[in-house]
Write a structure and sequence with these properties.
single chain, 351 residues, 2 domains
Length: 351
């Protein structure tokens, strides 16, 4: 009997990869937890989206499920602790959109330092010739990156890609806060590793490239904003919950920091009445940073390959809960349960 793979969320995965691998493939547009459980109850693998969440209740309701795979890097829609405990791999596709996100963060910073959105609108409205006073104001306020300090929160793949890009603009120094990255790695990218308070107080430009976890929830809050320079510019192309939106609104409104560029919000899509949208010193895009035709093609393929690889005894492209390998090893040695009859891939993964 063929193993069953369910596609329950938005996915760009080529279905032929799954069918050619011999799996039964079922597509379900699950919009509620109940629909998700009904779709996945007897599945061996699942290609998933952001919503509904694969929380403990969902995972416990799927006794055959072995692997869930998401596009991109984020796995915040999966209860990683529950998945690890149950012996379910939570897979992603790291690196598939590193270029896109780093480019978007760079573009946001350039747009804000060079006042691209407002001067473009000003010129189209005829202001260039009609409003010399405003022209002089813009000339006084555009800024350079060279000679300034750039801070990167999170020096993973995307943070490192951003460091590579920003280096060409001649900053005085690049500093980074990432408690999981040693200085020896920072040295490879010309980055000095510092604690968070040092980064917040010293950086002229700050960009966030860390995952959304309990540890990073509202990492940028009122206290953090108060430690920044009044001329600081903050960029967030990572995840919305890392930045407290109430604190960000107050900080931008009251001039605690100069400006911000965000591609993500705590609740998405952002409400049309959200007070953040009324701020002139906020540049916002609709969670677009990671997307491009190239990303869609590569990430969709890797998302499907994760499931194929795991169910055929090979290592996935990305594993967000590597501790699960130990759980599965214990299961195989005692009561294999959901892993009965599936080839062992653990020797192909570095735990």
């Amino acid at each position: 009997m063929a193993l069953k793979v369910v596609i329950s969320g938005r996915s760009m995965a080529p279905l032929n990869l799954l069918t050619e691998a011999g799996f039964e493939v079922v597509e379900r547009d699950a919009t509620t937890t109940e629909e998700l459980i009904d779709a996945t109850r007897d599945a061996d693998g699942a290609l998933i989206g952001i919503w509904p969440r694969h929380d403990r209740h969902v995972l416990e309701s799927c006794p055959k499920l072995k692997v869930v795979s998401r596009m991109g890097v984020g796995v915040d829609s999966i209860d990683l602790a529950a998945a690890t405990e149950l012996g379910i791999l939570a897979c992603n596709t790291p690196g598939a959109n590193t270029t896109e996100v780093a480019d978007h963060a760079m573009a946001m910073l350039l747009s804000l330092t060079r006042l691209i959105p407002e001067t473009g609108a000003f010129t189209k409205a005829g202001g260039w010739g009609d409003n010399p006073a405003k022209m002089n104001e813009y000339r006084r306020n555009v800024r350079r990156i060279a000679g300034h300090t750039v801070g990167i929160i999170g020096l993973g793949n995307i943070g490192r890609a951003f460091a590579t890009r920003i280096k060409g603009f001649g900053p005085e120094q690049i500093i980074s806060y990432d408690p999981y990255v040693p200085q020896t790695v920072g040295d490879l990218y010309g980055v000095r590793m510092v604690d968070l308070d040092t980064l917040l107080s010293q950086a002229d430009y700050i960009t966030i490239h860390t995952p959304s976890t309990d540890e990073t929830h509202h990492l940028i809050n009122a206290d953090a904003l108060a430690k920044m320079k009044s001329t600081a510019i903050l960029i967030n192309c990572a995840r919305g919950p890392i930045v407290d939106p109430v604190a960000l609104h107050a900080g931008l409104r009251d001039g605690e920091i100069e400006a911000a560029g965000i591609d993500v919000t705590e609740v998405e899509p952002v409400d049309a009445e959200d007070p953040l949208l009324g701020l002139d010193n906020l540049l916002i895009t609709p969670h677009l940073a990671g997307w491009s035709p190239t990303f869609i093609e590569q990430s969709g393929k890797r998302q499907a390959e994760n499931v194929i690889r795991v169910l055929t005894g090979q290592a996935p492209h990305g594993l967000a809960n590597p501790e699960v390998i130990k759980t599965i090893a214990v299961m195989r040695a005692t009561n294999p349960g959901r892993w009965e009859g599936v080839p062992d891939f653990s020797t192909a993964i570095n735990v």
